[in-house]
Amino acid sequence: MLILLDIDGVMVPANSWKKPEFHDDGFPMFDSRSVRALQKIISETGASLLLTTSHKSKYNIAQWRNIFKSRGIKAKHIHRLSSNSLHSSRKDEILDWYMAKHIPNEEFVIIDDDKLLNGLPTNIKNNLVLTSSSVGLTDELAENAISILKNRAYNYA
Ligand SMILES: [Mg+2]
After folding, report:
1. Å from CA of 156 to ligand 1 middle
2. Which three-class secondary structure state does DSSP give residue 26?
3. What sign does the CA torsion over 93, 3, 103, 125 have?
4. Which residues contact 141 (CB under 8 A, 6 or more apart)?
5. pLDDT values of the chain reduced to their tens digit, one per residue, 157 residues
6. Ligand 1 centre distance from Cα of residue 68 (Å)
7. Full-prediction pTM beyond 0.85?
8. Looking at domain 2-156, does it have CATH number 1.10.472.10?
9. Domain boundaries, the chain
10. From ligand 1's centre to the CA of 8, what distance in Å?
């Protein structure tokens, strides 16, 4: 199982009125509620992270592991989409991943605040959990993500 994870607007809510807070590693702090919500999805499903965030290529996997670990998230595996050298939209990046890399029947959920993802084909959009940019990932949305990951799995069982 995979969580296609965005960070800005998901783990780091966009508060235009508030200065972003940074951790010692130079990357923004994650919202504590979003951390609890993401950890809950990981604990209940064992899903791996597939980073879709525009920051994905700034750090290697070992650095990402540390970034998540020091913010309280224990992920078994962390992967990232290939670098977005063509400056594609998030929607096209996810479509490219789905066409080229998605393993049939592997459950996945897309957690992102990019509303253009509503334009994904229905079979992919059914796996979308859209956050509000200023709020980020909440407990309620985490429950949606868990049911997307689990219900489909039951269908194949
Ligand atoms: Mg975002």
Report:
1. 31
2. coil
3. negative
4. 37, 111, 129, 131
5. 999 999 999 999 997 677 778 999 999 999 999 999 999 999 999 999 999 999 999 999 999 999 999 999 999 899 999 998 889 999 999 999 999 999 988 999 999 999 999 999 999 999 999 999 999 999 999 999 999 999 755 555 4
6. 17
7. yes
8. no
9. 2-156
10. 4
